[in-house]
Write a structure and sequence with these properties.
Helices cover 31% and strands 20% of the residues. The protein is an alpha/beta fold.
Length: 459
C-alpha cells in the first residue's frame, strides 16, 4: 500500500499506458493503438474520448508499446517542466514503437514538437478529436468487425471502474498572467446540461461510485450561455448530479459569491463536502501581478462562511511561490494567511516561466534557490496543518471508498480525499473480501502527515 508523496504536483498526472485495458482489446487481426496520457484530469478525459471513438471504429487498445500499431501521446504544455516531460514521453514512444501521433496542449506548438522529434507522424492541438482520428486513419487504417467491436456503454475509461472524471466545460475566460491555458484551449465553452447528465447517468449505471467534476473554471459553468435558464447553472447541475446516488466531488471551483449556495448541498449530502479552489496566493500585490482577484481578506470571510454552513467541509487549494516580484514580506503574508485559513489539503509549486505567458516579462524574477527555500517553508507549514487535522480524526468513524486491495490491506479514500492528489485511508484489519468500489465504514486509529490508518467496522 504505497503512500502518496507529499509533493505530488496537482497539475501533472502520471503517464497512463499501464492501465488494464484487456477488456477493450480488439480481435487478433484488428489494428491496435496505444495511448500515453499526460497532464491534468481534463486531458485524461480527452484521452478517454479519443479511445472511445477509436474503439467504436474497430481499433483495439494496447496497454504497451510493443502491442500497438501506433501510439498517441496526449501532451501537457502548462509549464516548461511539463513540456520537457511531454517531449521525453514522445521520445520514449518513438524509441519503443516508432509510429507516434501527438495531441494535447503542447500540440498547439507543432514546430516545438517537430523540432525535437521530426519523426512524429502528426501533431494536433487540444481537444481536436477529429484531427486525431484522421491522423490515426492515415497511419493505421481501421478494420471494423461488427461481430467483435463491442463498446461498453460508459466508453473506454483510463481510470479505475469505480470512479470517473466528468468534464463539464472547455476553456477559460480568466487572463492570469502566468497561464497560457486560455490561449491553448480557448474561452469558456460549457457542455449542455442534458449532455453532462446523460454521461453522468451512464457512468453511474455502469458502476461508477464517484464522479469528479472538472473544468478550467467549474463555478463559471453555463455562464457563457446567452439563454441560460438560471443565473448560475452550476447550482442546477450540482443539484441534479447529487440525486444520482454517487459521490460528487467538485474540482477547480473559483470562490465566486454564488459558491455559498453550493455549500448547503454539501451539508445536506447531495454533493461531497469538498471544494478544490485555486487560491494561488494571499498577498494583494502578488495577486494583482498575477491578474487574479486580490481579495484575500474577503476570501477568509468566505471560508468562515462555508465552514459555518458545512462544518465537515474539506478545502483543497494550490499555490505558487516565487512569483516574479514576490518579496519576503509578501511570502510571509501567504504563510500567515495559511495559518489562519487552515486549509485541509494543499499543493504548491515553484513559479516557472512558460512560453507565451505575460508573467515572463515581469521584473524582479525570484532566484531559484529562494524559490526552493520558500517552497520548503510553505510545505513544512502545510504539512503541520495537515498532520494536526488528521490527528483529530483518530477515534472517529468514516465512510471510505475502496480503491485497491492487496495482501497487506485495502487502500481507501474518504470524502476528504480526491484520487492521486490527496491522502489515503489504509485499512489493515477486516479487509478480507473487499474489492475496489466497495463502500465501507472504518474506525480511524492512527494518523500521519497526509494519510490515515484504521480497521473496518462493518465486516
Amino acid at each position: 500500500m504505497a503512500q502518496n508523496p507529499p509533493d505530488l504536483r496537482p497539475d501533472r498526472a502520471q503517464a497512463r499506458l499501464d492501465r488494464d485495458l484487456s477488456t477493450v482489446r480488439a480481435g487478433r487481426d484488428q489494428p491496435t493503438i496505444g495511448m500515453v496520457s499526460l497532464g491534468c484530469p481534463k486531458a485524461l478525459v480527452d484521452s478517454e474520448r479519443i479511445l472511445t471513438r477509436l474503439r467504436a471504429e474497430g481499433y483495439g487498445i494496447s496497454p504497451d508499446y510493443s502491442g500497438a500499431d501506433a501510439v498517441i501521446v496526449n501532451t501537457c504544455g502548462f509549464l516548461d517542466s511539463a513540456k520537457a516531460e511531454s517531449l521525453d514521453a514522445i521520445g520514449e514512444a518513438l524509441t519503443a514503437n516508432g509510429r507516434v501521433i501527438v495531441t494535447g496542449c503542447l500540440g498547439a506548438e507543432p514546430d516545438y514538437i517537430t523540432g525535437a522529434h521530426p519523426r512524429v507522424l502528426a501533431v494536433t492541438g487540444p481537444h481536436q478529436y477529429e484531427q486525431v482520428l484522421d491522423a490515426v486513419h492515415a497511419a493505421v487504417p481501421p478494420d471494423p468487425d461488427p461481430f467483435v467491436d463491442l463498446l461498453p456503454a460508459s466508453g473506454v475509461k483510463l481510470t479505475p471502474r469505480h470512479y470517473s472524471y466528468l468534464k463539464i466545460s472547455e476553456g477559460c475566460n480568466h487572463k492570469c498572467k502566468f497561464c497560457v491555458i486560455p490561449d491553448m484551449r480557448g474561452r469558456l465553452a460549457s457542455r449542455p446540461h442534458k449532455a453532462v447528465m446523460r454521461e453522468a447517468e451512464k457512468l453511474v449505471d455502469s458502476g461508477v461510485k464517484e464522479l469528479l467534476v472538472i473544468s478550467q473554471d467549474t463555478s463559471a459553468y453555463g455562464t457563457d450561455w446567452s439563454d441560460r435558464p438560471s443565473k448560475f447553472p452550476i447550482l442546477d447541475l450540482a443539484r441534479d448530479l447529487g440525486r444520482l446516488g454517487a459521490w460528487v466531488r467538485m474540482h477547480y471551483v473559483y470562490p465566486y459569491p454564488h459558491v455559498r449556495e453550493l455549500v448547503p448541498m454539501m451539508a445536506e449530502g447531495g454533493v461531497l463536502p469538498y471544494l478544490d479552489i485555486p487560491f494561488q496566493h494571499a498577498h494583494p500585490d502578488t495577486l494583482k501581478r498575477m491578474a487574479r482577484p486580490a481579495a484575500a481578506e474577503r476570501t477568509l470571510d468566505e471560508i468562515a462562511a462555508w465552514r459555518r454552513a458545512c462544518p465537515d467541509i474539506t478545502l483543497r487549494s494550490t499555490f505558487i511561490v516565487g512569483y516574479p516580484g514576490e518579496t519576503e514580506d509578501e511570502f510571509q503574508t501567504l504563510l500567515d494567511w495559511l495559518d489562519e485559513a487552515q486549509l485541509d489539503r494543499v499543493g504548491c509549486f515553484q513559479y516557472e516561466n512558460v512560453a507565451g505567458a505575460r508573467s515572463n516579462a515581469l521584473p524582479d524574477h525570484v532566484p531559484d534557490e529562494v524559490k526552493q527555500e520558500r517552497w520548503d517553508r510553505f510545505m513544512e507549514k502545510a504539512q503541520a496543518i495537515s498532520e494536526a487535522k488528521l490527528a483529530a480524526k483518530v477515534g472517529t468513524r468514516l465512510t471510505a471508498l475502496v480503491d485497491a486491495v492487496d495482501e497487506e490491506g485495502a487502500t481507501c479514500r474518504t470524502a476528504a480525499d480526491a484520487p492521486e492528489i490527496d491522502g489515503n485511508l489504509f485499512v489493515d484489519r477486516g479487509f478480507e473480501g473487499l474489492a475496489p468500489g466497495d463502500m465501507i465504514e472504518v474506525e480511524v486509529d492512527e494518523a500521519g502527515e497526509y494519510d490515515l490508518w484504521g480497521a473496518r467496522v462493518d465486516a
